[in-house]
Specification:
144 residues; alpha+beta; five-stranded antiparallel beta sheet; 31% helix
Length: 144
């Protein structure tokens, strides 16, 4: 998913994977009426984890069914931004979580001359896709 969707600006799949999967969590904001233990795999994420780990935890939560039972989810969204790679995972509801991922080695003030330009791009994935992936993986696991 990261390699395919993270092609901002248009790069090879491998380059996209390298640019986005290693982004580091720079901020976790949580607002909750419930304890973190109620949100399964996502509750294990700590400051400094990678975007790959965050996305894996989100999909694993959908696979296990924990995300579907999240207290009153109103919105689940994964964002990819470019040309300077950034990403975020946002879950809104009675328990709200916002996780931001950045590359501390990238120059954030201006686009470097060797990059594809200064066109800002953003791609969003909704909870529908995440739930679909969880369902697909669950079915694959039961057929093997």
């Amino acid at each position: 998913m990261i390699a395919t969707i993270g092609k901002l600006p248009l790069q090879s799949y491998l380059k996209s994977w390298e640019r986005f999967s290693g982004l580091t969590c720079t901020r976790i904001n949580q607002r909750r009426k419930y304890t973190m233990g109620e949100i399964g795999e996502i509750s294990t994420l700590k400051q400094g984890h990678s975007f790959q780990e965050g996305l894996t935890a989100l999909i694993a939560s959908a696979l296990s069914g924990v995300l579907q039972n999240f207290p009153n989810p109103t919105k689940i969204q994964v964002d990819f931004h470019g040309p300077t790679p950034r990403a975020s995972i946002n879950i809104l509801g009675d328990v709200s979580i916002f996780i931001r991922y950045d590359d501390p080695t990238e120059e954030l003030s201006d686009v470097q001359p060797n990059q594809a330009g200064d066109l800002e791009q953003s791609i969003n994935i909704s909870g529908k896709t995440i739930f679909g992936l969880g369902e697909f993986l669950r079915r694959e696991a039961t057929t093997k």
